[in-house]
Amino acid sequence: MEPTLRQILRVHERIAPYIHRTPVLTSTTADKLTGLSVYFKAENFQKTGAFKARGAINGILSLQKRKPNIKGVVTHSSGNHGQALAWAAQQLKLPCSVVVPENTAAVKINAIKTYGADVVLSPATPQDRRLICKRLSTEKDYEIIEPFDNYDVIAGQATIAVEFLEQVPDLEAIVVPVGGGGLSAGIALATNLSKPHIKVYMVEPKGKELAKSMKAGHWLWEGPDRNFATVADSINRQQLGKLTWPIVLKYAERDVLTVEDDEIIQGMKFAFQRLKIVVEAASATGLTALLTEKLQRINPSLQKVGVIVCGGNVDLDHLPWYEHRASK
């Protein structure tokens, strides 16, 4: 069952010794350009450089409560969850294996290895990754911790909202990037259960087509899950999870903000140049939705808006404004 507010608050206490309480940043320039008071929850300063550390450490801690003698953990990930689970396993002195697509950037693979995990390459499709992950789980007797479709992981990500609303109690809305839905489900759930008047808007890269399903109120994707081409490659999974989908459908706003690659790149540049922070493309989607006034057009009455900056794991040798320009 989906986590309760009491459970989320307990999770926040449980993982506190392991994670950073990340800062909230503001920018006079961002406020002027958007016409809003904008507050950035900087999870790019989190352990392993992304919010995923919260869900990963809670995933293992919760698993150990149920099964004290687990032999190890395994997951499949294109990068950030793999790093996070490798780090969490290292903290708790457990072996860890991570299945990554064969086209994963070397910088991400090396980061996973730095935390002591074994890396196993797979074909790039989500189905292949899951199959290899299940095989490793059987062969090694390791427990699988899914990157987003896991209630313990969702509860870990939900602690971001707990902190954010302590730091800025009078927010009117929160904008959150959406990939598989673990982050957006956690934020929407914790926000609605604690302060239901605060709206949670998801922002997607063009090509995901979540907006269509949310508008319709039911699942419209057809066929198996797939990855789609976007500069925001850490949220390039088209479908949400079977656990995350009903949560966001219930608690997030039906209006989904859709941003294009060129817009995301400009938002990412703004974060580098004006906010002076390193963000990955997925992290820039929320800011981008404000700079392009997509949120303001949907809800002109908003004044105080929070943005989840989900991570900062960037390959500095392949910055998207160079890569994207070269591909045209």
From TrEMBL:
Gene3D superfamilies linked: 3.40.50.1100
Annotated Tryptophan synthase beta chain-like PALP domain residues: 16-311
Swiss-Prot/TrEMBL catalytic activity: L-serine = D-serine; D-serine = pyruvate + NH4(+); L-serine = pyruvate + NH4(+)
PROSITE patterns named in the record: DEHYDRATASE_SER_THR (PS00165)
Pfam family for this entry, one: PALP
Enzyme Commission number: 4.3.1.17, 4.3.1.18, 5.1.1.18
Keywords, sorted A to Z: Isomerase, Lyase, Magnesium, Pyridoxal phosphate
GO molecular function (one): magnesium ion binding
SUPFAM superfamilies per UniProt: Tryptophan synthase beta subunit-like PLP-dependent enzymes (SSF53686)
GO biological process, one term: L-serine metabolic process
Co-factor requirement: Ca(2+); Mn(2+); Mg(2+); pyridoxal 5'-phosphate
Family membership: Belongs to the serine/threonine dehydratase family.
Role summary: Catalyzes the synthesis of D-serine from L-serine. D-serine is a key coagonist with glutamate at NMDA receptors. Has dehydratase activity towards both L-serine and D-serine.
Name of the molecule in the record: Serine racemase
Organism: Acanthosepion pharaonis
